[in-house]
């Protein structure tokens, strides 16, 4: 069985998804790729080839001398100035990165956008977006991007958006393995072409603050133990990702570290219209409610929950340390 060739290019961004990918473990990244039958043709941080060697490799792919099975693009596509792409030339080639990506995407069996920048534009497209940054097949929530809404790879698939800022290493490796070892269908990806292997979950699932959420015992200041949805901007009940059941580095997540979830797997997360740690409200009711709960239900349940909040949770929620542990209940023996 021949190996699947993977090419990884970096465009406009911080390189954080590659840094995250290096944390793949049990087994490590290289062993995972080898076990899945994936041959890494080139990665800007992991490969030795540079300059003319890389350009020759790319030209061989375009000439169909080397098959390209998996094209992974990290970072947003910089189309400026005036659509020329010359804000970002691939080093040593004199050719805009967007031109390389267009040509290579036409050769790839699967094209993957690694990270929210490559998927939707991300941080690079925020504010005035002077570089005219965009995603591969989305510009924010709108289809289009660099490759256009009609683009499909040689295996008749749209761009696969492994979104996150950064992505969890397992989201990348498991998606690659799914593409190589299985027969992926469009139904395996959600409306934003994100792999359902992690977007069928919410960050809220598995959050260690869920008891506080159930009773609406809320944190009021950074460092408080309570639920961060009501006052601290947490979007975990709306964010599609499994961060609290598939922990980072084996034991971490944003909410476990005491920071609100900012929904970084979603398009346009970088423009929240308010501070990331402030919950917008109308008449005292949070604007960002759980995605599948009607507002009237939430208000009614929140009122009941607060009325029933145990004193233990109410006090602990506003503290940086556990004050009152759960009470021990002894069985009555007659």
Protein described:
Helix content is 24%, strand content 11%. It is of the alpha/beta class. It has two domains: 4-199, Rossmann fold, CATH 3.40.50.700; 203-322, Cytochrome-c3 Hydrogenase, Chain A, domain 2 (Irregular), CATH 4.10.480. The strands form four sheets. A five-stranded parallel sheet has the order 2-1-3-5-9, with helices on both faces. The radius of gyration is 23 Å and the shape is elongated. The chain starts with a strand and ends in a 17-residue tail after the last helix.
List keywords for this structure.
334 residues; alpha/beta; Rossmann fold; Cytochrome-c3 Hydrogenase, Chain A, domain 2; 2 domains; five-stranded parallel β-sheet; two-stranded antiparallel ribbon; 11 strands
Radius of gyration: 23 Å
Euclidean distance between termini CA atoms:
71 Å
CATH C-level class of the largest domain: Alpha Beta
Number of domains: 2
CATH homologous superfamily identity of the largest domain: NADH:ubiquinone oxidoreductase-like, 20kDa subunit
Corresponding CATH architecture of the largest domain? 3-Layer(aba) Sandwich
Helix-strand category: alpha/beta
Structure annotation, total helices: 10
> pLDDT average, as an integer?
92
Strand content: 5-15%
CATH domain topology of the largest domain = Rossmann fold
The largest sheet, given as strand count, sense and whether it forms a barrel, is:
5 strands, parallel
Helical residues, percent: 10-25%
The 3D shape can be described as elongated
The secondary-structure element order is EHHEHEEHEHEEEEHHHEEHH
Beta strand count: 11
How do the strands line up in the largest sheet? 2-1-3-5-9
Given as residue ranges, the uncertain stretches (5+ residues, pLDDT < 50) are: none
């Amino acid at each position: 069985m021949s190996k699947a060739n993977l090419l990884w290019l970096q465009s406009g961004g911080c390189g954080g998804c590659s840094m995250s990918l290096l944390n793949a473990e049990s087994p490590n990244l290289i062993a995972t790729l080898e076990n899945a039958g994936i041959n890494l043709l080139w990665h800007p941080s992991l490969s030795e080839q540079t300059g003319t060697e890389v350009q020759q490799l790319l030209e061989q792919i375009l000439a169909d001398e080397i098959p390209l099975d998996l094209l992974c693009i990290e970072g947003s596509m910089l189309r400026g100035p005036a659509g020329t792409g010359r804000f970002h030339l691939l080093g040593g080639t004199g050719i805009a990165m967007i031109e390389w990506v267009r040509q290579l995407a036409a050769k790839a069996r699967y094209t993957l956008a690694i990270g929210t920048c490559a998927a939707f534009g991300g941080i690079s497209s925020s504010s005035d977006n002077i570089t005219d940054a965009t995603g591969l097949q989305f510009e924010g929530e709108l289809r289009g991007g660099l490759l256009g809404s009609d683009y499909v790879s040689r295996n008749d698939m749209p761009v696969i958006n492994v979104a996150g800022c950064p992505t969890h290493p397992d989201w990348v490796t498991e998606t690659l393995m799914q593409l190589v070892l299985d027969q992926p269908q469009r139904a395996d990806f959600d409306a934003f072409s994100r792999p359902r292997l992690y977007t069928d979950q919410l960050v809220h699932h598995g959050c260690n603050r869920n008891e506080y959420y159930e009773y609406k015992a809320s944190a009021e200041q950074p460092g408080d133990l309570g639920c961060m949805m009501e006052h601290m901007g947490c979007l975990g009940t709306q964010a599609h990702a499994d961060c609290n059941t598939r922990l980072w580095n084996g034991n971490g997540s944003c909410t476990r570290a005491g920071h609100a979830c900012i929904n970084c797997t979603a398009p346009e997360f970088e423009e929240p219209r308010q501070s990331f740690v402030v919950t917008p409200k109308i008449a005292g009711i949070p604007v960002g409610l759980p995605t599948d709960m009607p507002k009237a239900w939430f208000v009614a349940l929140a009122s009941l929950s607060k009325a029933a909040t145990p004193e233990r949770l109410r006090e602990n929620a506003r503290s940086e340390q556990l004050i009152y542990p759960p009470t021990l209940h002894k069985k009555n023996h007659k």
